[in-house]
Amino acid sequence: MGSVTFNSTANTYWVSTFTGAAQVEVWGAGGGGGSSNRSNRTGGGGGGGAYARSNLTISTGSNYTIAVGAGGAGGANNNAGTDGGATNFNNNEVKGAGGIGGTRTAAGGAGGTTANSVGTDLYAGGAGATGVNASGTGGGGGASSRGTATGAAGSGTTGGNNNGGANEGSGGNGGATNVNGYAGIIPGGAGGGAGNNVSG
């Protein structure tokens, strides 16, 4: 059997068409970037989602629940970004924790942790970068993991890049003055923080 990918944040019920070993990989969703309407501070980048992997035995005709975490929303009108949701397979048999939203006071959010994830192989998401108040630019979002190491952290205004195909899982860049941060890339990339003076 080939691979099966699920991206919908609605709960999905998958009925297996085979019996045997299956490798299950999940990524928690990235956190949203923070926003500041002050001239002297910026939003922090969100943290990338955690990664979890396990080899499971799947049975033909069995029904498995898949819940994909929703990406965190960027903060609006001087608020922190919201946290990313956890993604889980079969009622947390395999689970990747979501990343934490960036703050409105420049600090970046933490990546999704292995402590809050479930699986044989676990890697944390990258941390969001702190906004650069001196230049008025938001912090870059953290990346998710590619399944071999912790996700890359945001650095300055640049989102973490895990060098996956088409940059999958990379964090979004932070926004310039009066500009919102940029969205991260699925799976699990976090949003960048907004620049200063952003009110919406």
Any key phrases for this structure?
200 residues; mainly beta; 4-stranded antiparallel sheet; 3-stranded antiparallel sheet; 0% helix
Brief overview, please?
With 200 residues, this protein is mainly β. The chain is built from no helices and seven strands. The strands form two sheets. It has a four-stranded antiparallel beta sheet with strand order 1-4-5-6, with no helix packed on it. A three-stranded antiparallel beta sheet has the order 2-3-7, with no helix packed on it.
Question: What does this molecule look like?
Answer:
Helix content is 0%, strand content 17%. The strands form two sheets. Strands 1-4-5-6 form a four-stranded antiparallel β-sheet, with no helix packed on it. Strands 2-3-7 form a three-stranded antiparallel β-sheet, with no helix packed on it. It has one domain (1-197). It is built from no helices and seven strands. It is mostly beta strands. It has strands at 12-15, 20-27, 51-58, 63-67, 87-89, 94-96, 121-123. Strand 5 (87-89) and strand 6 (94-96) form a beta hairpin. The relative contact order is 0.25.
